[in-house]
Write a structure and sequence with these properties.
By secondary structure, the protein is an alpha+beta fold. The chain has one domain (2-141): Ubiquitin-like (UB roll), CATH 3.10.20.340. It has helices at 2-14, 33-45, 47-54, 60-68, 99-105, 133-141; strands at 22-30, 80-83, 86-90, 93-94, 110-116, 122-129. Helix content is 41%, strand content 24%.
């Protein structure tokens, strides 16, 4: 049952009108599952994160910004973020990485954002999609 529900949740995010990629946000190291979900949902709902994903822009600042307004108390000096398996943020600062290589990896139909809050053992996994020109066009033309 859990497997089927997970597959359906991914399909809903992947099939969003006008989207080009599925984004999986895995949060670990939270104090509680509720806090892990809160951080993951804030990142998933961030228009800036979604547009960076569409533009294949490995912008860790947008991810950290969304984490910051999630309403969860965490220490940015201890938090770590990776994108498509590449560490991009840790020890309170952006890390050195090959931006061109990471941008190329972000062009895939599936993209992973991994966040470690380093505060506990709770985890959450959130699915979302990117925000594309086509999404904006479809919704701008839609009337009720």
């Amino acid at each position: 049952m859990e497997y089927a529900c997970r597959q359906m949740a991914q399909a809903i995010a992947r099939d969003a009108e006008g989207s080009s990629k599925l984004i999986t946000i895995a949060v670990r190291g939270a104090a509680t599952e509720a806090e892990a979900r809160q951080v993951g949902i804030a990142v998933a709902n961030s228009s800036l994160v979604k547009t960076a994903a569409f533009g294949n822009d490995p912008n860790w600042g947008r991810i950290l910004c969304a984490m910051g307004y999630a309403g969860v108390d965490f220490d940015p000096e201890r938090a770590r973020v990776s994108l498509c398996g590449t560490d991009i943020y840790g020890n309170g600062a952006g890390l050195d990485f090959d931006g061109d290589k990471l941008s190329a990896a972000m062009q895939a139909e599936k993209m992973a954002i991994d966040i470690d809050l380093a505060m506990g053992a709770a985890t959450a996994e959130i699915f979302t999609c990117d925000l594309t020109y086509e999404y904006v066009r479809l919704n701008a033309e839609y009337t009720t």
